[in-house]
């Protein structure tokens, strides 16, 4: 049986060896929802309706939806492959914050929807945390990202 200290050393060694794969997997998992949205795998009809309901002129909604989808595809793909991953994460975060405030305003939702909107708001907050971690994590070379 290994001592506690020996076990920690083994775990540190294994974690170091697995780090490149884990970092890729983390970036892939974070990017997946943005790619699904951008590629239209997730229906965006409700998102378009919410933009109009929150005061955006209906004539501008298609352009904003197209721009959002393009950003999600480009930054999501960049995040997956690690191309300027910090910039990609910041771009997705900049998109996510206003999208969350518009689409998941649980504080203004009817009582029947409040719980579901709160859950979605908190999920988006967790996604934001992952994006901020990618953008500002220590120990990565700035020149490559």
Question: What does it look like?
Answer:
- The protein is an all-alpha fold.
- The chain has helices spanning about 5-40, 45-55, 60-80, 85-105, 110-135.
- The longest helix has about 35 residues, at about 5-40.
- The model has no long low-confidence stretch (mean pLDDT about 90).
Please render the helix and strand layout as text:
Layout: H1 4-38, H2 45-53, H3 61-81, H4 85-103, H5 111-136
Concise overview:
The protein is an all-alpha fold. The protein has helices at residues 4-38, 45-53, 61-81, 85-103, 111-136. Helix 1 runs antiparallel to helix 3 (61-81) and helix 3 (61-81) runs antiparallel to helix 4.
Strand % is: under 5%
Shape: elongated
Largest sheet: none
Q: What is the residue-averaged pLDDT?
A: 89
Total strand count, please?
Answer: 0
Unreliable spans are none
The radius of gyration over CA amounts to: 19 Å
Tally of individual helices: 5
Secondary structure: helix percent: over 70%
Q: Structural class from helices and strands?
A: mainly alpha
**N-to-C order of helices and strands:** HHHHH
Distance between the termini: 42 Å
